[in-house]
Amino acid sequence: MTIWLNLIGIVAIGCGLWSKNIGLTVAGCAIALGISTPIIYRGIRPNIPKSLSSLQRLRLVTTITLSLAIVSLLKIGGFFSYIGGLSTHTDWNMVGGLGLWSGAIGQTAIATIAAFVSWRQYIVSRDLTIEQNRLNRQQNIITQQQTIDNYFQGISDLVLDDDGFLEDWPQERAFAVGRTAALLGSINAAGKARVIRFLSRSKLLTPLQRDLRLGKVILNGNGGYDEDRISGVRVINLGVMLAGIDLAQNDLRWTDLSDANLIRTNLNGCNLSQANLSRTILYQAKLIDADLKGTRFFYGDLQLASPRIPTSDSLPLDTAATLESRPDYITGKFSGAVVEDVDFTNVLHMSEEQRQYCCAWCGEASRRTIPGGCQGILNRLLSIEYSSSARSFDDDYIG
Predict the structure, then answer these.
(1) Quick one: average pLDDT of 187-210?
(2) How much is the pTM?
(3) What is the dihedral of CA 19, 20, 22, 25, to 10 degrees?
């Protein structure tokens, strides 16, 4: 019977909607609700106490009642009619324009956010790159220090024997020179300065007096070795290893760079206190802000001292026979450094003796850079003997 009544309700609703008969439709809905609601309620009633507590059921009923009351009040107050009238009188073209503007603003905001994200990614990537470069530099420094330490140990093992200092074996000296040249060509300026200090303080760059038969170094009786500037043998001869390189802002105190070729070497800001630069070729070198306290440029008497000159093979035939290139460390002749075209700007602690020597032998361009000037000091570089000296050194270096 219930099924037939439900079918009658469905038929009534369908016929009412088809014929647009409100009464028939309402009657069908009433029949359907009256028959279906009790049946559904009886089916879910036993489960309601299990799923909802009494307080939850009360809140559910209260919420439904409140919602119906609010909707009724809005209906009575004409709120829905007002909304309908507002929609009718709204200029939807303006609303569309506002939508377009809002879309453009949104796209701009999105682009700005994307640009900010890209910028942050760049900052992070840059910081990571800087940190990686810093780590690489630290690793390179550590690797270089290890390389230099291994070199120190290798040279020490090579030059020392059971009896003490290196005997005068040419092959051992050749190995020492070769290892030094290879090392200086692969490390930075600070590493080069460290190696030079080690070699110099170890007396490996100083010409030492040796026994002509046994080749052994001769002791001076004071706990050291006798120097022989004329005939002594250096364990390591720097030659042109330091020519044209950058040694700026490094500590070269008490180093023996005598007879070394430092053409165009950058010595700006170096501490050359007590360094020996006698017979060193400093042609076109830079000594800006260098500390020259106690630096030796020559031996002997200031008035007789003169720079070294090229060997007879480098001089023209008409002058080679008349010039004796052997240095005299008593008078100072040919014992001095070649200082032509050196930049002495703002050098520190230049003594009067150093100033007079450099003014006499540095040339017109360099005289203008010497602190205190060269007023009243003769430019001796214009003499016939030295007119081609620096050029000959330069040609030897280039060749």
Answers:
(1) 92
(2) 0.65
(3) 60
